[in-house]
Structures are given as C-alpha cells and as structure tokens.
Specification:
CATH superfamily of one domain: Aminotransferase class 4, branched-chain amino acid transferase, N-terminal domain
Mean pLDDT: 77
Structural class: alpha+beta
Radius of gyration: 19 Å
Helix content: 10-25%
Low-confidence stretches: 120-134, 144-149
Largest sheet: 6 strands, antiparallel
Order of helices and strands: EEHEEHHHEE
CATH architecture of one domain: 2-Layer Sandwich
Strand content: 15-25%
CATH class of one domain: Alpha Beta
Distance between the termini: 75 Å
Strand order of the largest sheet: 2-1-6-5-3-4
Amino acid sequence: MTRPPARAAAPAPVWLWNGRLVPEPAVTVSPRDRGLRYGDGLYETLRVHRGRVIRLAEHLARMAQGLALLALALDPHTAFAAATLAELVAQNGLAAGEGRLRLLVTRGIDQGSARPRPQRSRPGSPTSSPFRRGPRSDPRPLRLATVEAAAPRPRPGQA
C-alpha cells in the first residue's frame, strides 16, 4: 500500500512590518508596546476581492482622522501605499483570491508612564497582514452604530 505524497507546509504569511515585507517569524512585538499594554493605537480592516483592496482611499482617510485624534504623527497614505499593499496581497497568495487586510498602528514603545507623551515622530509599528479565506459571509443584515468623538482641547500651557 502506498502513501499519498506528503503535503508541503504552507509558506509563512508575509507581513508589512515597519515599512518592509517580512515573513511572519521575523515579526516581533515588544511587551512594552503601548498598543499591547494599553490598546493605544488604531486599526482598519479592509476587504480583498480578487486580489484588489476594496475602498482603500476611504479606509486610509478614516485612519488619518483617527491618527489625528490620537495625536500620532503618521501619514497612512505613505505608510500603507497602494503598491506596497498590492505586493503584500500578492506575496500572500491572494492575487486572485478573497481575504482581509488589517492595518494596525500603535504609539510604539512605552516610556514608563500610562500617559502618552506628545508624539513628534513616526509612531511604533504600522503592520498589516492578510487573512486567508475564511467561512462564507453571514447573509444576515449588518447593524452598525457609530459615535462621533471630538478631539480633546489642549489645556493652557500644553503643546
């Protein structure tokens, strides 16, 4: 009796990590990252359909608004350039497939205080990773509630 040939292990997913495409084992997050410790950051989840990122401009515009509210100095249009995301999608085998792309930005390494310091430079680690095909979408309607948030006003003497 012959055994079927062994299946080759799937290659490690590729991530966009600090501006470079790297295999998943090379990605590390510091336990001092403010996103990990305090949830200090934000993310966007995008649909990939037939290898194309859907509504990228709208997602990046919303991310820019969120980054401004959090006082994080990062241009998501540069950090998550369309050409780079297209390469990420292709390297993860989704060039003709379906999937999700999650863009995550944190403030970076904790400076020893729960209160964030003013951000003057690029925040910690913009990352993205595709999500391989999952179960079919739920056909039930989606209900969504949103809350408008105003940016806090600086106190006198604060920059």
